[in-house]
Automatic annotation (TrEMBL):
Keywords: Isomerase, Membrane, Transmembrane, Transmembrane helix
Name of the molecule in the record: Protein-disulfide isomerase
SUPFAM superfamilies named in the record: Thioredoxin-like
Stretches that traverse the bilayer: 35-56
Amino acid sequence: MSSDETGQTPDARGRRDAVREKAQQVKARQSRNRVLRLSAILLVGFAAVAGAAYWVTSAVLPTLSEPTLNPTAMTDDGVVIDRALQRETAGEVPEEPAEGEEAPAPEETPATEPIRIHLFVDYLSEAAGEFQRANATQLTEWVDQGAVELVYHPVALLTSKSNGTKYSQRAAGAAACVYEHAPEAFIAFNNELLTNQPPVDSDGYTDAELADRAIATGADDTRAVRACIENEDFFGWAREATERALNEPLPGTGDVSLTGAPMILVNGEPYVGSLDKPEEFAAFLLALDSEEYLKTAQPEDESEGQ
């Protein structure tokens, strides 16, 4: 048997070459697999980036670029409830005089301007609900007598207290929808949201449930109200209105900003008394400049008890 200078036989050299060739094949296959894996990773990465870019352009950018829808009938982000609106809501329509009869004389305008009460309410705030339940009756009577004008400002301070559903903000937007499309139902809907609140840290009412409640409280234009609430037309406005209240002077004040809900201002003066004692709130009003006027305009049950 012959051998080369290394002393290896041809069979040995053949086996060595075969092993080398096999190793080279394995190495080449591993290299190809690495290239394929890297290509797959890059493709997945590109797909993720493309998906994120599509989401930003299709969902985020339109939201950022679209202007916020704002209610057109509000005053300083609030709903003014005066005697005219309250009587219209109650269905009190002046009767037309019969033929040959003289028209009744118009009601006298009070010599003193009504006291204006601004109420900043979060519809998830238990304290706001407490104040409404305790004071709604006397507030209604004062408005009917022309002694007071109420301005309800829906705000969203407890947006994080509803398991991610942002109930406070949605409810504030729903209140704006009702006043925009069915002002005749606002007083009842506002009272409903304040006196029949979902618990804090619950999901709150869905948009569909808010729409149902709005319609149940007397909204005439049911289609427009439901569409506005379920499409969350004034959801963005509720956030921006809250930011304005937190960062800018509140109506009728020089430098008072929103610090919590409810926040109640009487002719620009913050009320800091008990929320569940209507007689205490009445005393606060009587202590203001319009004391003499309110003494003749306070509810009958209170005047009899004094």
